[in-house]
Amino acid sequence: MTLLVTGGAGFIGSNFVLDWLKSSDEPIVTLDALTYAGNLENLASLQGDARHTFVKGDICERALVDQLLSQHRPRALIHFAAESHVDRSISGPGAFMRTNIEGTYTLLEASRAYWSGLGDVDKAAWRFHHVSTDEVYGSLSEQDPPFAETKTYEPNSPYSASKAASDHLVRAWHHTYGLPVLTTNCSNNYGPYHFPEKLIPLMIVNALAGKALPIYGDGKNVRDWLFVSDHASAIRAVLQGGRVGETYNIGGWNEMSNLEIVHTVCELLDELRPDAAGSYKRLITFVKDRPGHDRRYAIDARKIERELGWRPAETFATGIRKTVQWYLDHPEWVVRVQSGAYRDWVAQQYQA
Ligand code: NAD
Ligand code: DAU
């Protein structure tokens, strides 16, 4: 048995692959185009591990996906690959439409062709697991209940609209063709290997460099935060026991404003790496708001708990401490990401 994982060199995908191979000998084939967000160094500990095969390639390339499916005959495809950063989707939406919509469509069609040719037992066991986001549901006011799986889709950014489109495609391929799909919609992740364009890693690396900590608008936008290995364990639970055609919301029961997040990061750094110039909070700087900035996300994760017994293992206090410590312990990873040197390694590896 094998899993085909798309986007496995990115933040969540690499954490998923590493976690999977810690507890299972079932091999993984990772397909990743290594865009700016893909970092093969995240998977460096798997070099020479026969359980892991890395393939550099684009999910929009049908022939490549067909070839991987027929060569490796996976029992499931776990689809992480995406353009994932909201700010980039605002300045350049094209790549999001291509990867998130056309890429998902390509994977669905290739999967359908492969799955149609399987025998009855393998066909029933096969899964297309689509990894999606809570942003498809839109924005909540302070009083609104958290997002349940029944919440209408109201995406507000080019990123969330492209993810919503991909969710609809996945749903339609199940409804029309019977493809055995699972969809998970998760809240904001944080943890090791998080690219420092996103809030938490950006605040850590900027603070350590003595740079401004940019807070959009009034800093009161609220997100639900989940430690990344809890997302990986939720995906494992859904893959194993999720009902085909269903969606499961995944969250940390941990709503916090951006300002609270940044204060927590600064307080941990004050404790773990005190700066003679004073608290890192002095670097907090309010900047222009993100256009169309969603005010609040919150997840009702009762369905996955009720049906599959999943709950997050980390609290925010434990997860954020591990995260800050990871960045302090891996300065070379940060330097190579910031300088772009992580991409040279790929160029050497692939003579690209
Ligand atoms: P990421 O940007 O860190 O990684 C994305 C990966 O996909 C990269 O390795 C990149 O090289 C690869 N990729 C991009 N375009 C590709 C293409 N055309 N073909 C093949 N590979 C391609 O993203 P992430 O934060 O790890 O998110 C992974 C998934 O989880 C995404 O689908 C995202 O929408 C979803 N998600 C993310 C979060 C979060 O907080 N980061 C929360 C919920 C859901
Ligand atoms: O909710 C899940 C989503 O979480 C995922 O689907 C996305 O892929 C992921 O990028 C994330 O989206 P957000 O837009 O919530 O994450 P980001 O880290 O970009 O921003 C978190 C909050 O912090 C948001 O309210 C914007 C704010 N922010 C962000 C940055 C980068 C700042 O105030 N300053 C910043 O510099």
TrEMBL record:
NCBIfam families cross-referenced by the UniProt entry: dTDP_gluc_dehyt
GO molecular function terms noted in the UniProt entry: dTDP-glucose 4,6-dehydratase activity
Pfam families (alphabetical): GDP_Man_Dehyd (PF16363)
Domain of life of the source: Bacteria
Keywords: Lyase, NAD
Organism: Roseateles oligotrophus
GO biological process: nucleotide-sugar metabolic process
Reactions catalysed according to its record: dTDP-alpha-D-glucose = dTDP-4-dehydro-6-deoxy-alpha-D-glucose + H2O
The enzyme's E.C. designation: 4.2.1.46
Protein name: dTDP-glucose 4,6-dehydratase
NAD(P)-binding domain boundaries: 4-323
Protein family per UniProt: Belongs to the NAD(P)-dependent epimerase/dehydratase family. dTDP-glucose dehydratase subfamily.
CC cofactor: NAD(+)
Gene3D superfamilies: NAD(P)-binding Rossmann-like Domain, UDP-galactose 4-epimerase, domain 1
Transmembrane regions: none
